[in-house]
Design a protein that fits this description.
Helix content is 21%, strand content 39%. The protein has two helices and eight strands. The strands form two sheets. Strands 1, 2, 3, 6, 7 and 8 form a six-stranded mixed sheet that branches. Strands 4-5 form a two-stranded antiparallel ribbon.
Length: 145
């Protein structure tokens, strides 16, 4: 499982001209599920994201987690995080889990974040989404389990 985490001042997800998710300060999480991923990977990444100290304290040091700042999160399924570009010019996505495996794990990850106390919204699995990201910093972190 792979997560690309972006610290945001605000973010939103729009599907078919309807905003389905919108947050202020917090994290936009692009989440990819690979073959062999399961509950263990989802639990590890949810705990890591909830407690990752990437927000600045009163001294400008990155000492605070999303929980500390009472931030919000949006989780967006992103199979393209498993793109393999080693051969040719067209990415291969053979390492990404099939939708019937990936969708429940994306939902589980979002629910695990909620269980850690992070208000969490999601994109729409399998939909064409417009994701608006106001990356704060910019801060972008890659996590993998």
């Amino acid at each position: 499982m792979r997560a690309l985490i972006q610290r945001v001042s605000k973010a939103s997800v729009t599907v078919e001209e309807q905003t389905i998710s919108s947050i202020g300060k917090g994290l936009l999480i692009l989440l990819g599920v690979g073959h062999g991923d399961g509950e263990t990977q989802a639990e590890f990444l949810a705990e890591k994201v909830a407690n990752l100290r990437i927000f600045e304290d009163e001294n400008g040091k990155t000492n605070l987690s999303i929980l500390d700042i009472k931030g919000e999160a949006i989780v967006v399924s992103q199979f393209t995080l498993y793109a393999d570009t080693r051969k040719g010019r067209r990415p291969s996505f053979i390492d990404a889990a099939l939708p019937d495996v990936a969708e429940p794990l994306v939902k589980q990850f979002a629910e695990l974040l909620r269980s850690h106390g992070v208000p969490t919204q999601t994109g729409k699995f399998g939909a064409h989404m417009l994701v608006e990201i106001h990356n704060d910093g910019p801060v972008t972190i890659w996590l993998e389990k």
